[in-house]
Amino acid sequence: MRKLVLGPHLRHVSDRTATIWVETDRPCEVRVVNQEQGLDAGARTFTAHGHHYAVVEIDGLSPGARIPYEVVVDGETVWPEEGSEFPPSQIRTLAPDGGLRISFGSCRRSPGTVEEFGHDALAAFARRLRTGGDSVEWPDVLLMVGDQVYADELTDPMREFIKSRRAADDLPIDEAADFEDYTYLYKLAWYDDPEVRWLLSTVPTFTIFDDHDIRDDWNTSYAWRQEMWSQPWWKSRITGGIGSYWIYQHLGNLSPRDRASDITYKAVREASDSTGDAGAVLDEFAEKADKEPAGTRWSYAHDWGGTRLIVVDSRCSRLLTADRRGMLDDDEFQWLHEQCHGGMDHLLIASSLPYLLPMAIHHAESWNEAMAGGAWGKAAARLGEKIRQAADLEHWAAFERSFRDVAADVVAVGRGERGPAPASISFLSGDIHYSYLARVTKPGTQSKVSQIVCSPLRNPLVGKFRWANRLAYSRATGGPFRALAKLSKVPVPPIRWRMTDGPWFDNAIATVHLRGRHCDVRWETPRDGGTLGDMGRANITG
Predict the structure, then answer these.
(1) For the purposes of burial, counting CB atoms within 10 Å of the CB of 304, is it exposed (0-12), middle (13-18) or buried (19 or more)?
(2) Gene3D superfamilies annotated for this entry (predicted)?
(3) Of 63, 117, 384, 499, which has the fewest CB atoms closer than 10 Å, so is most exposed?
């Protein structure tokens, strides 16, 4: 009997197209069907490292459609599963002239106990959609902004899997080591919880990676990269991590047109057809993507009605050499520069890392970058690098030039210098394990500019780290770190902002609601019993 190993996942959608992603247990023909409505689309699987995947593209749909579907593998119906108590999975296209709801979050540990990681915001969200009937407001898009899996902080089921396939003294210890390990991480994250599996089958989902999808502090600095590539186990680790991300996450972010022009997708399919397994081609691509980041783009942008969503890769595309340092390489920044323009009601820029941090943290990171760059001498530079890695000082603030370049783009768009100014420009981010809203106060723009953070979905900070971040969140703590940054000749930030809502440290999911020229956001947290309750609300454009 045929079966799905993972999926189905409803991924990229537009007003007339949809993408269904699956992993199967063998090479096969996968079809997505609804006989009553004349839906029948299919794709052959491709194979990489003994695993089989299909990306089914569906076209000619109606805007705002809600079409129940089944997945058929070589003539056998494998989804919905027999005896399922869940509502039928639906293909949900967007209605360009209507409002748009984008639910988002980051940092989800799975599996694990409530005592370890608290209640799962994503599972609670799925439960509400499943049981709420017509009264529930569904998101049009689910955006997961980093740390979908934790490759370096393993749970017991993952450790048992690793123990079953390699010797106890093999490196790395207590971390994923290769592509096969990553495939099991994704299975634990997206298969074993039936409510999350159903959610991913029926809500269009987009993603971007952060460090734990590969390894803590991934690409924090040139020194970090040099250290990692000196390790004999790193090549299989990084190729496995990037290659699996390309299959499990990146392919579904692309529109059908973008996928059709993706040379790696074409090469992998051709290698799978000709040799039976495209693993070697995928590994070569992944290694090159790490060593030559300018050759691969993980960022993407989609326009939905009056909203433009730009999702920025702030991890793999970093410029890190002995002489230069940037959050994005030159090609990637030029791409971002071209995507930032007016003429939309709302501009959303998603980055796994918050662009606007609490002031104390921002100034500490900008000071540390200067220190690690030699502003206080060679000995201090070595100390600065140690502090950077120990304290995770590697957000946008730690890339001063990149921060200023993005600020220039945002201010230009917000002032109407690149077409009519949007009503709102919002950064959507996660990573830091608490949620908040920050609003830009200077310089003046026609657009309301804000930073919306929602983190974690399921991985709360422990007490001492909460205390430290509460302290950093206070406006009073920014002064001493700004003084250190000034001593290091770091210029004053080109924009000013203030924290207006939060911080909230509970597991959470946020929903940004866009309608006309109005934008608001709602944060919700899971309660005992698996329900969601309000954690905070804010009117962005009011």
Answers:
(1) buried
(2) PhoD-like phosphatase
(3) 63
